[in-house]
Description:
Elements: E1 2-3, H1 9-18, E2 25-28, H2 40-56, E3 62-63, H3 67-72, H4 74-77, E4 85-86, H5 89-99, E5 104-109, H6 111-116, H7 118-126, E6 131-136, H8 140-145, H9 152-167, E7 172-175, H10 184-191, E8 196-198, H11 200-214, E9 227-230, H12 234-243, E10 250-252
Parallel strand pairs: 1-2, 2-9, 3-4, 5-6, 5-7, 7-8, 9-10
Helix pairs in contact: 1-11, 5-7, 5-11, 9-10
Amino acid sequence: MYDSGIGGLTVVGWLRKVLPEERILYFGDTARVPYGGRARGEIIEFSRQIVGFFLSQGVKFIIAACNTSSALALPVVAQETDVPLMGVIRAGAEAAVSATKAERIGVIGTQGTVNSRAYTEAVKKLAPDAFVREQACPELVPMIEAGYRDGEVVEELLHRYLQPLIDYRIDTLILGCTHYPYLLAPIRRLMGPDVKIVDPAEAVAREARNELQALGLLNEKKAGEDLFFVSGDPDRFQAAALQLGYTQRVEHVEIEQYSI
Length: 260
């Protein structure tokens, strides 16, 4: 599984609950985070490199936990390898459609994810009459990667991004970036008790289990410990991961040397 940084660890947590018998290899592209403002061609090339690295490790299934990669790169890269690739957009859209009562759904995500309109398209396939409003939040990922989770600065920034969605009277909000669950407490305070918050991580883990089962790839017993890799500073990532309860040793990878 891969993400641009620490965001994908929110999915790792759910994978460990839903698929405890599976060994997880996690790659965080911390040298190139954030992805949200990058060109589509860059995101595709980054994904090719990361998938190439995973193939060198002999993986059987890959999850693009990064929403930006899921929206922009997955449709291309999935056609270039025989190993099954899964994104996070569909699972998030399905969870939101199941949760909404008024069919008024908001999405917060990176600029790249929002520009792709991937969530709007995914929701509309399931609920053609649903109203979907997507809001780009380009400053959130750098803030989260820097260690900010709550407080006055966080709330001020979130208020600026969330107020248009509040004004549109949404009843369901999709956290369209795997980093955003780290801001769940202030997001809940600002949105209020009547808005359902959808973190796609749980739905992604359950979809992954279904996919592995359908492909006959489920393990009966875990084959080894989980492994974490990054393109940037492993010590910095490990310090952040430790704060979230992850104790795995983190290894640096020169990711540019890999490709499909």
